[in-house]
Amino acid sequence: MRSFVLLLALLVASVVSAAPKKKAPKASGGGGAKQAVVVDAPPAMAKLLQSTLSPRFNVTINRDALSDAPTSKEVRSVTSPAKALAVVLARSAGDAWTITVLNGADGTPLETQNFRAAARKPLKALPKSVAGSLILACATGQAPAAPAAPVTDTPKSDPKPEPTKTEPVATPTKSTPKKDVVAAKDPEPVPEPSVSTPSSSTSSTTSALPAIRAGLGFRAFGRSLTWSGDPDQALARYALAFAPAIALDATWYPGAHFTSGVAANLGIAFSGDIGVGISSKQDASRFGTRYDRFRVSAAFRQPFGSMFSLEAVAGFSTQTFSIDPVAANDGSARPNIPSVTFNGPRAGLGVRLVKLGPVGIDAMAGFTFLAWTGELGTEAYFKRAGGFGIDAGGGVSIELVENVQVRAGLDWTRYLLSLRPEEGARFTAPSAADQYLGGSVALHWVM
What we know:
By secondary structure, the chain is mainly beta. It contains four helices and 16 strands.
């Protein structure tokens, strides 16, 4: 009987040892999840930013656009649901883009990038330096902290669960705080700093406005010189319907190469017209004629939002229209038409509208005080002559390719002359008007 029991025990032990053992369940791992970033931008730029940032972050596009200067409360309203590290805010003005990375916890700026992209062509990829800076700035952001939920003490009347161990369990007293209950603290108020807008980026970034604008083209103009109060008609009137000229102009804002502050809007401006192939006719006589006009000025521009900017200039203007005293073909003397040189200080004020697609509009008006009138102001004519000039002009430009535009414009200038003849002088006209009307076509390089 004993041997039978022993044999049965050995058989049971062998069966138990041969049974397959259950594998321990693997621990579930949650590592490798991407952190979140929110993008607030126009649709095309939002998709481009999403494709740029998605290899490193879980990107969400904000459909309800933030303001251009969001407060920290606005920023947290879009970062809290996704626990996002940062908000990438992109805004454009014409073909200039400004992208700002805001900290997800409090909305402070982490990075600002400015660059230009042609409005006519969709941007296929961000510049590498811009993309790298945005990724690095997003990685340094902080997600908003979740507010701590208040926890109340367990009512004393609630029954306590029976201890599972046989050892006696110490009952907590009033002097012994419970370790599993944490007193909730009210979250400290976070100051709401204002976030800089694209137009108020730090001085370390370059200006979004062009630093250089230069043009070369063709100008056609006409002239009309009339005298008033000349009963004897001793002075000859002059009319020129058409005259060609080479036109050039340039404006340079040196500070715009390295800053977006006030220094980026201070510059110098130059414009010039040089007449070519001009001659004056009197009956069968032809007189050699020369014409030129040059202006050199200090320039200042003041942008107002993204719609337009004001531009002011102050400097010196000179314009000459001279006729040879003897005809080139027959040697006859020139009629009583003095050559003029209008020199003096000039100031102007204009407006430049933001581009509507590839189209831009500009206009300016100016005033010139005449300090010198050339031969007109000598003893041969009116040595006490003086006056002033007023001018106005404008144009429409169309972008052909990136940084290259074609501009068509009109201009008008009128000099009002007070001659003040002396008693007994040869010429007695008290006043005169010298008017010029022109049109131009030019290629402009803008960057």
